[in-house]
Amino acid sequence: MRHRALAAPPVWRELLLVVLFYTGYTLTRVVLVQDGTAPAFAHAHEIMRLERYLGLDVELHLNQTLLAVPWLARAANIFYATMHFIVTLGVVVWLYRYRPQHYRWLRTSIMFATGVALLGFWLYPLAPPRFLHTAGFVDPVTALHSLGLYASDASGSLTNQYAAMPSMHAGWALWCGLILVRLTTQKWIKVLGVLYPATTVFVILSTANHYVLDAVAGMALISGALWVSWFLYLRCPVPLILARAQITHRLAQRTGRSAGGSRAGSAACRTGRS
User: Are 145 and 268 within one domain?
Assistant: First the structure.
């Protein structure tokens, strides 16, 4: 099983998995909030009070600073709307193509973290700062009539805009940055690996889409998911490997793939005895 974990799975299966997972992720974000927006705004005021107490409430200052430089604000809006997907997908493809021995556990870590994040969106709906107009926040997309993730009514209605905690913009950016720093060889790419998550955090705060605690929670979640996935794939105890092989074998039998499942189970058992 450990040897299998070091080989990249078939590309068609991964593409299907990505499409199904992201579709479910998007639809779930829309469906989960059913109780109106009052809890989301109440939680927003809770976050603001806590950050003020901790001295972390820098979002308003960053928002005002960004709006003072319109061209930078427009660039930040485009960055927020696009790079979250472009960079993450690019890193996934690069991993699959050039670092297949690390692909499975890293792919599993980001999917696990994103799945857990859905629980946060459901249990703790949170209005982003750009909705808190009385506190002085301004949405740079609407203020500058700029391109952005929620620039149109259609895009705003097809997503859950109260899914701010945890920030997966920050979490995914950290995931990409760690991979670029640890697994690439060119120094300039390693530098980009450091700059990308830092830039992402600045963008999500200054565009008033997230709070500092959102970013902290997203990064903590992805860090924990990386550790769990690494342990299960590369440091998993033999009894768990055997149990996983038995479950895979039984599922394969039920779906008419008993021959392939039996070979996988036998290989895992031989690995355990050795």
Answer: no
